[in-house]
Records
---
Amino acid sequence: MHAIEKILAKNSGRDQVKTGEIVTAKVDFAEINDLYLQTVYSFYEMGGKTVWDKDRVAFVFDHYAPCPTINSAVNHQKMREFARANGLTHHFDINRGVCHQVMPEAGLIYPGMIVVATDSHTTTHGAFGAMGTGCGATDMACILLSGELWFRVPEIIEVRLDGEAPAGVYPKDVILSVLGRIKADGAVYKAIDFTGNYVETLNVAGRMVICNMAVEMGAKTAYMQPNEDVLRYVNARAVRPYEVQYTDPDFVYVESYHFDVSTLEPQLSCPHSVDNVAPLSQVVKDGPVTLDQGYIGSCTGGRTEDLEAAARILKGRHIPPYTRLVIVPASDQVLRECLEKGIIQDLMDAGGTITTPGCGACLGAHEGVIAPGERCITSTNRNFPGRMGSTEAEIYLASPATVAASILNGCITDPRKYL
């Protein structure tokens, strides 16, 4: 069995599972974001009194942090009441950040676990050797009642990433190139196992970027064999012991794709689809692509390493008049680290606007939404019409370094000229 199958077997009390089977498995941790107040309503409608385990459930207020509307404030109010009534051990309010960042920081994510959240980008936690997946309000209410959920054992695809990335090519560029080949519907309800020597040496932040965007191919979950960097990260924060690592020396995948990252240049996902990917040089070959806004943040591109890459390019320089750069740290811990390193100061000196840690304008709610006719380059994860504001705006996805170099020039720019 593959590691994902072994995790499902362990949590469903079985010796073996097979592709296509439906199993009922125990959930090790459940998280509800502030879009899903319906979870609370459904819980009570099903006769719920208290959650199955107060140590294994958390709310994270990240999509509306702080609240931009009265309705979102009411959502938070009712969720706080539920958390307080159930005595939840873990609660992440508007001061903490994006769920996929704050849960690992709090030591709640570890190899061999099943984590389910009301957010599609829960695939992020495959970076730690966990099985992470998203669900809706009704399924989450079932978890809160029983601690279990049904799963279909997914087919498993291998995406092998080998080689050493050239200077100026980042994990975001790598996963965009994968998306451009496999496409947005290439892994629907399948699991993606990222393998290869590039993955083996990748740090935690880079792993999280790649696993995060597996869902943009339709993947149910993602997986990476934990490396030493992951084990150090988990052991430094562990709330509970984690399972022995699973290995898959002879597993046969339903499909395998191979990528040589050493051949890549910076990549862009162009309007209006995440799999509309092209090398940067091709995007600008017919002339400058002018920009109104740069955006660095979210669960894909708002970690310390991301802000640091942008600051290296922007330090001592300033963005042009009538453009803007919005920076949204992924968590309060990221913000503190960047303050201590002087990164925030460098970004502000360059004309950047720092906002509250969280999702920000990634979902088009607040903190940097864009107007009709505007063009934004962003380190976030989706670019369909209306994702960051107006349906008449254009969104380009890129690495934080490409975002920084581009907004510095007011047009899409190769970051390698600054490295």
---
Amino acid sequence: MKKLLTITVMVLMLLGLCACNKKPEETPTPEPAPAPAAFDPSAKSEGVMTYSEFAAANLGDEVVIEGFVQGAQSYWQGAKFYVADPDGAYFVYCDGKGEDINISEEDYAKIVASTDYKEGWKGICDGTKVQVKGVKAEWSGEVEVSEATVTILDSEKWVAEAEDVTALLGTDALIEKMNKKVKFSDMTVEASKDADGNDVAFLYNWDGSGEPGSDLYFNVSANGTTYNFVVESYLCYDGSDVYEAVEALNIGDKLDLEGFLYWYNGANPHITSITVK
């Protein structure tokens, strides 16, 4: 009996040792979720033109583009947008028959939503991505997308850096930067002539016939050549920082400026920011 008890104890001890040495079943490690694709502001949806394809299209061709809204003019039965991607820029405009961009006022408000929003006028936008379908057109040298339908896309936002084009002023190469966000450095305010022939730093309207709230025109020079710039009131309203900065200019002031390189029978930059040095 004593011998049987001893054997039983030894068997139990061996079973215990086996149990202690048994490895737990391994739980399979789940496969990691694939990393989201990196945001690429140059990416286009199927059937959408690159900027190069848009540039190569003929006037009158139907076009489909995508880009990020950098600026917007006031909403009046539509709107006008300055749109860009990393490869180029576009001006999206009405069809010339009084029928502005096909976009609802509700969607327009989403694009321009900002604490700096006043009476429907907003200059700088924060890069909402849109798709635009329309026709490639030209008006007084300005290449644009007209007869346009604008759709807001679900995307991250993107804002272009202003490109310094001061060295291109007066050259044929400047037109290649049309509609881009640009900057001009070390410019000097030159005199304009008001209706009485007096030297002034700026004019309300191109000929001085306007009043506060009108477009502001002013002359600036670089390397001995004078150029005419404008603060478009539908882009930067009366009361905005840039509008008030122009109203405070003096002949001879030194400036750095930013804006969109609009074209009207030559370079006609729509200025959105001024720094007096």
---
Amino acid sequence: MLTCYYAAMQIIPALDLLGDYAVRLEQGDYDRVLFRQPIEEFMGRIVATRPELIHIVDLEGARDGALRSEVVRRCVALADSIPLQVSGGIRSIESARLALDAGASRVIVATAVWSEPTALADYVKALGEQLVVALDVRNGQLAVRGWLSSTGLSVDEALERCMVNGVTRLHVTAIERDGTMKGPDLALYERVCASGLAVVAAGGVRDDRDVVALERVGCEAAVMGLGYLSRLGLSLDP
């Protein structure tokens, strides 16, 4: 059995979905698929390691802007009581609640909370600690809509909005590192952790050395995609 914690640091395996497959993309590019496997098979391998939490990203939902609640239910059924944090296509408070009603333990929201000035406060009020706000960072700015568009917001501007509006947890992805196995952007995570908010780090996390480094800069957890695949001994052939 794999260990899903290193010291106090939580390691969260990632399951990215595209259609009926678990996939890994390079730098979020839908045309650069590094790995593909049926959802049931891949989820079964993750569940066998008994992590404390599984990170689900519906890439199709993120790209098309529509929650696929049936996919959430499918993953919940496969998760064998392991809690899920879910993202992709959650563009309204109603769709966030639908994801929670489908069995997700918490939801990650990006595009919708940055859509207008009052949106972030509305989501915090409605969802409380079940809300995780995504900061998906490319070239120092936040990307949205499946990482296909930029908000024009800097990391510091986004952090200020989060602190003012009572956000408790952030999911921060260094897009340039995602799917590259080049290591996490420690400078980015140190900067974000200085806010005092709980930070889940994603993008480029390879192994326990990276996990320790992220713990040292203040992250509470790390999402592992390709790194977790290598722990499972899975092929990266698409």
